[in-house]
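Field log, afternoon session.

UNIT: design team B
ACTIVITY: writing a sequence onto a fixed backbone
BACKBONE:
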């Protein structure tokens, strides 16, 4: 049960990055947090508290943002909107692996839009970590998400949504505030409008991931996190969708490890229960598939970065 609850929690973190967002204007190129506190994370997290083990980056009401137990590498990747490790080059490996807690606020912003975060993080990293980087294009492996069936029919677990999700940033902020307080019950085990949730109904060694009112770009973001590779939407599907996908536990464990969770060694030997791999789940349940390909991707080259002065 401990493994299952940790994995379910790991997936709930996806909501903060994939909640449906309103079409707000793009942030100003010089956008920055009004105030920000940065400190090293606790090197000895409580093993009984999943919140202390998982990397979290959360928007919250009042224009606030918090990051806890978050490696510098993950902060930089979020700032430059990178989908796979190969897109970040250079920098001292030990420093990039260091974990930090951040509390910040944007002036005069009741709700922090997810699309504002990259530029805000870039400004913070440049100020506190003295980050200097440049971007170039390189050919990298990636996936194209396409329709699996030649007749264009969707799978039985992917259908147009009737939910109204135009206030996605407010939803994400409320989710972030609840997660910061340790309220896991709001996200695990009960579907909710405009959210991505998980529950153990998939069986002993599976989890169900359910999405309500999600656009293809949110599904693509989830798939990028699950595969560790950039995914491009080539489905041609528009609008918002509800979906349910049974996920093999090993796939979830891989994601949890990537997010910093301490997974028991015995969990690595758990068998795949019923063939519910990502490929199978996408094809049979959603009517989608991933095609491996290569293409030009932006790569961020770290020219300089240093540890921040402790607050």
């Amino acid at each position: 049960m401990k493994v299952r609850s940790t994995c379910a929690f790991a997936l709930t973190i996806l909501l903060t990055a994939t909640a449906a967002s309103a079409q707000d204007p793009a942030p100003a190129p010089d956008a920055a947090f009004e105030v920000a506190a940065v400190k090293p994370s606790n090197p000895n997290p409580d093993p009984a508290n999943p919140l202390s083990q998982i990397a979290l980056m959360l928007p919250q009401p009042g224009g606030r943002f918090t990051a806890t137990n978050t490696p510098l590498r993950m902060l930089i990747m979020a700032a430059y909107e990178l989908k796979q490790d190969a897109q970040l080059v250079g920098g001292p490996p030990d420093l990039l692996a260091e974990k930090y807690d951040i509390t910040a606020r944007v002036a005069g912003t009741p709700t922090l839009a997810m699309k504002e975060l990259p530029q805000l993080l870039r400004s913070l990293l440049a100020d506190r970590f003295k980050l200097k980087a440049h971007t170039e294009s390189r050919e990298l492996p990636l996936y194209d998400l396409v329709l699996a069936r030649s007749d264009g029919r969707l799978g039985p677990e992917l259908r147009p949504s009737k939910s109204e999700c135009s206030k996605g940033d407010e939803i994400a902020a409320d989710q972030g505030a609840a997660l910061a307080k340790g309220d896991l019950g709001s996200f695990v085990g009960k579907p909710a409008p405009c959210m991505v949730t998980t529950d153990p109904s998939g069986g002993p060694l599976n989890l169900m991931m359910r999405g309500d009112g999600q656009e293809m770009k949110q599904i693509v973001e989830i798939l990028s996190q699950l595969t560790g590779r950039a995914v491009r939407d080539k489905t041609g599907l528009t609008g918002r969708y509800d979906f349910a996908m049974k996920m093999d536990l090993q796939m979830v464990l891989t994601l949890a490890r990537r997010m910093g969770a301490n997974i028991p060694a015995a969990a690595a030997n758990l068998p795949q229960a019923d063939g519910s791999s990502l490929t199978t789940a996408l094809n049979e349940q959603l009517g989608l598939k991933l095609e491996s390909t290569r293409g030009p991707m932006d790569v961020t080259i770290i020219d300089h970065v240093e540890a921040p002065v402790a607050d």
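LOG NOTE: Confidence is low (pLDDT under 50) at residues 1-25.
NEXT ACTIVITY: expression trials, pending approval
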